[in-house]
């Protein structure tokens, strides 16, 4: 009974019923299991059973059965089973025409099969014969497992002509093998790992032959699906070849989204993972996600060819120096491999898949993950899931509580943070869709429920979501003890997504009464925590969803600020005593155990809470401060220009240096004047570039035409090259407006950068010194003007 880890799952109609194909990684190699004679199933009201039986009398291959399930309105249901998706689709159309209700018609059979057995990714498979990936094993028994199987990975990268219509080379980088399949003539080189192929078709075939022999589970790359694999598919079609990328030499299958044109690939028995998508899923953020930028940031090394003319350089090397091109091609594979290793991206994907039931290559999918975990448990409680939109009400669910801030520059701000506030609220107050239905249907007395908000109340027994969160919480504690950072991070993302799912109209369990019981409870907790802290003699200058910013010097005006050790003791005491206070309050008021956990998170030695521009009111979600880490002082920015991708490098550098000087009590006047002088003198031109992404197609901008669109249109007009939605536009502001950096025609408008980039940054902090930048540099600026 080998342990296995799920790689891919597919289903298809056959004459004998629906067939489910699952590919697994095992310690003995790839395993292909096939479950046949399956059925599509959905549910209808039992009171409609007779009417529906007559309605479907003309259809073949279906049956009906009574089941011990009911709807969220407490109405019993029957199950309808169909031998094929086609028959189920025909039945659904008849039900829609007759205006009859049905539920769970959108659950796909391969997902239902696994979820009802509580298999997310790991499984134990009962086999009577050895693993053989060349043919399917029929109908083995499967049970869930926490197993982890080492997965065999290959980094893939291709080089082509600039229009991607001519293949130059295909590079692969694996743990024990590195190769470049190069189109053209030459002597195979072990030093450069090059295998020359006479034609493009021969190159494609050599790559596919190697892939089937090496037999990896995972293919990784940079835009590997959107570019590399799609180009290889296109080139195979051109050469009248089947792109047999899958195991058992099965072809890859593609689908494309209508909205954004994104492509998705299914490779039987293998998974393609894109480094960019996985970094984003793991919550890593970069100014640019180009391989060059990310590898420099993470690995301190980059590509062998760089710059905007790289495409021409690649084409030149293909003609003049194929071995140098091979080195370049292989270096890209190596960079991707090392990024995956450095950030444990495959480990992260594996852990997330095991926790949620999402396939390794599924990016996003919070709603799908929630439903995969929730539905089988809901069925065990005797309910079917509602349809999308059925639980909506007139109640409006607010967002997180954001307190009005007190602007100023402060010594010693302590940040107290509720650990995973929304998950802990769900767990503490037993907030759960099923528990809400149970409380209503069984008309439970108040002592058997926990009150929510907007008329919601939740059964103390029979809830599902609090148990799921408790399991994840325990798993995260174990991961932290074992220093398993990818697992810990994956669990945190999943737990924190549950509120977002319940509060999303795209989730079938969206009910404003349920999700407002989470957010409004959060408001209450933050406000009452603030009141308790201020009763201890400290000031709370700001609060944001799950954090409170505490000023510990408010009653010590004129005295020497507290030192680091004193602040640490205050922070630890406040966190400890506030946790104890909540334990007592919730036991008294609700007779429940508190799972709220506030922790002393950060000590800012100096802290700025700015004002809204042109106002004396404090901002929200925007601040900066100085922390000390390992004996080194570090500036932290939140929501300000320094962390925004749409501000220039000039503004970011200026803000960092100016704030550092002000926080350190250093003179900043000469620095401000020198920076303005350098800009006006043309000494900072390289730092004046804006980078913004096109959110729509160029022709869709009509009334409001922002600078990046103006620059993009000029670029198209001047170069004749196309620009697509999603492209990044690098531009500058000139005396003729916004212009693309690669086709600049006019002189730079330096005054724009002083007024729109330097001045807002300076005045946000100089305001508290009762100064402004205009006064500081007015004389100097007038000299440049005249």
Number of domains: 4
**CATH class bucket of the largest domain:** Alpha Beta
| Number of helices, counting only DSSP H or I runs of 4 residues or more | 22
**CA-atom Rg in angstroms:** 31 Å
Domain DNA-directed DNA polymerase family B multifunctional: 371-757
Domain DNA-directed DNA polymerase family B exonuclease: 101-292
Protein name: DNA polymerase
Enzyme class: transferase
Q: Would you spell out the secondary-structure blueprint of this structure?
A:
Layout: E1 3-14, E2 17-26, E3 29-38, E4 40-45, H1 49-55, E5 62-70, E6 76-82, H2 85-97, H3 109-115, E7 122-126, E8 137-138, E9 141-144, E10 153-160, E11 167-174, E12 178-183, E13 194-197, H4 200-214, E14 218-221, H5 224-238, E15 253-256, E16 263-266, E17 271-274, H6 275-281, H7 291-299, H8 310-320, H9 322-342, H10 345-356, H11 366-380, E18 408-418, H12 421-429, H13 433-441, E19 449-451, E20 457-459, H14 465-481, H15 485-502, H16 512-535, E21 539-544, E22 547-551, H17 564-590, E23 598-609, E24 623-629, E25 632-638, H18 649-664, H19 669-680, E26 690-693, H20 707-719, E27 728-734, E28 737-740, H21 750-766, H22 773-785
Parallel strand pairs: 3-8, 10-14, 12-13, 14-17
Antiparallel strand pairs: 1-2, 1-7, 2-3, 4-6, 5-6, 7-9, 10-11, 11-12, 15-16, 18-22, 18-23, 19-20, 21-22, 23-24, 24-25, 26-27, 27-28
Helix pairs in contact: 7-9, 8-9, 10-15, 11-15, 12-14, 12-16, 14-15, 18-21, 19-21, 19-22
């Amino acid at each position: 009974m080998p342990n296995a880890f799920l790689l891919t799952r597919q289903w298809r109609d056959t004459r004998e019923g629906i067939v489910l194909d699952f590919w697994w990684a095992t310690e003995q190699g790839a395993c292909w299991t096939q479950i046949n004679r399956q059925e599509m199933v959905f549910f209808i009201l039992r009171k409609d059973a007779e009417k529906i039986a007559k309605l479907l009398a003309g259809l073949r291959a279906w049956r009906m059965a009574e089941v011990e399930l009911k709807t969220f309105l407490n109405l019993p249901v029957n199950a309808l089973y169909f031998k094929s998706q086609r028959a189920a689709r025909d039945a659904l159309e008849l039900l829609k025409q007759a205006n009859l209700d049905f539920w769970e018609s959108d659950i796909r059979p391969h997902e239902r099969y696994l979820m009802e057995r509580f298999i997310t990714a790991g499984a134990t498979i009962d086999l009577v014969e050895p693993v053989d990936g060349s043919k399917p094993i029929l109908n083995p028994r499967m049970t869930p497992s926490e197993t982890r199987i080492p997965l065999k990975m290959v980094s893939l990268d291709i080089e082509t002509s600039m229009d991607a219509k001519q293949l130059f080379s295909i590079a692969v980088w694996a743990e024990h093998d590195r190769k470049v399949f190069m189109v053209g003539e030459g002597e195979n080189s072990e030093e450069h790992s090059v295998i020359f192929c006479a034609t493009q078709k021969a190159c494609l075939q050599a790559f596919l032959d190697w892939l089937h022999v090496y037999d990896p589970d995972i293919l990784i790359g940079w835009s590997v699906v959107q570019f590399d694999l799609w180009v290889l598919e296109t080139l195979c079609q051109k050469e009248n070849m089947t792109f047999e990328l899958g195991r058992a030499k099965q072809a890859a299958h593609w689908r494309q989204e209508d909205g954004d044109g994104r492509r998705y690939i299914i490779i039987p028995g293998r998974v393609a993972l894109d480094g960019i998508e996985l970094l984003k899923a793991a919550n890593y953020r970069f100014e640019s996600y180009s391989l060059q930028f990310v590898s420099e940031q993470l690995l301190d090394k980059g590509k062998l060819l760089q710059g905007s003319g790289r495409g021409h350089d690649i084409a030149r090397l293909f003609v003049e120096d194929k071995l140098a091109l091979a080195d370049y091609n292989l270096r890209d594979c190596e960079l991707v491999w090392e990024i995956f290793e450095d950030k444990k991206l495959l480990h992260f994907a594996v852990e997330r898949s095991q926790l949620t039931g999402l396939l390794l290559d599924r990016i996003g999918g919070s709603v799908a993950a929630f439903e995969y975990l929730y539905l089988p448990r809901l069925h065990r409680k005797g309910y079917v899931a509602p349809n999308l939109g059925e639980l909506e009400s007139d109640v409006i669910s607010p967002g997180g509580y954001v307190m009005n801030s007190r602007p100023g520059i402060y010594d010693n701000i302590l940040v107290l943070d509720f650990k995973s506030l929304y998950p802990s609220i769900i767990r503490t107050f037993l907030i759960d869709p099923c528990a809400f239905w149970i409380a209503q249907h069984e008309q439970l007395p108040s002592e058997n429920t926990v009150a929510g908000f907007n008329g919601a109340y939740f059964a103390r027994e029979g809830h599902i979501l609090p148990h799921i969160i408790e399991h994840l919480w325990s798993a995260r504690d174990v991961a932290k003890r074992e220093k398993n950072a990818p697992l810990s991070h994956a669990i945190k993302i999943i737990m924190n997504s549950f509120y977002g799912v319940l509060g999303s109209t795209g989730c079938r369990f969206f009910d404003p009464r349920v999700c407002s019981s989470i957010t409004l409870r959060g408001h209450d907790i933050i406000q009452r925590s603030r009141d308790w802290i201020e009763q201890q003699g400290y000031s709370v200058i700001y609060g944001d969803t799950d954090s409170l910013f505490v000023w510990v010097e408010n009653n010590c005006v004129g005295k020497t600020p507290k030192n680091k050790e004193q602040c640490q003791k205050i922070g630890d005491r406040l966190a400890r005593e506030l946790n104890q206070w909540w334990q007592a309050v919730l036991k008294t008021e609700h007779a429940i155990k508190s799972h709220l956990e506030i922790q002393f998170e950060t000590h800012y030695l100096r802290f700025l809470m700015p004002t809204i521009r042109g106002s004396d009111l404090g901002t929200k979600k925007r601040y900066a401060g100085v922390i000390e880490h390992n004996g080194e002082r570090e500036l932290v920015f939140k929501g300000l220009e320094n962390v925004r991708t749409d501000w220039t490098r000039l503004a970011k550098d200026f803000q960092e240096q100016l704030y550092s000087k002000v926080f350190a009590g250093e003179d900043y006047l000469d620095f401000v004047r020198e920076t303005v002088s350098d800009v006006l003198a043309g000494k900072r031109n390289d730092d004046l570039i804006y980078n913004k992404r096109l959110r729509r197609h160029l022709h869709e901008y009509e009334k409001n035409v922002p600078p990046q669109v103006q620059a993009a249109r000029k670029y198209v007009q001047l170069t004749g090259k196309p620009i697509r939605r999603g492209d990044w536009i690098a531009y500058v502001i000139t005396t003729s407006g916004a212009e693309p950096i690669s086709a600049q025609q006019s002189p730079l408008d330096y005054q724009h950068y002083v007024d729109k980039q330097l001045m807002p940054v300076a005045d946000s902090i100089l305001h508290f010194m009762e100064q402004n930048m205009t006064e500081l540099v007015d004389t100097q600026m007038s000299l440049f003007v005249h």
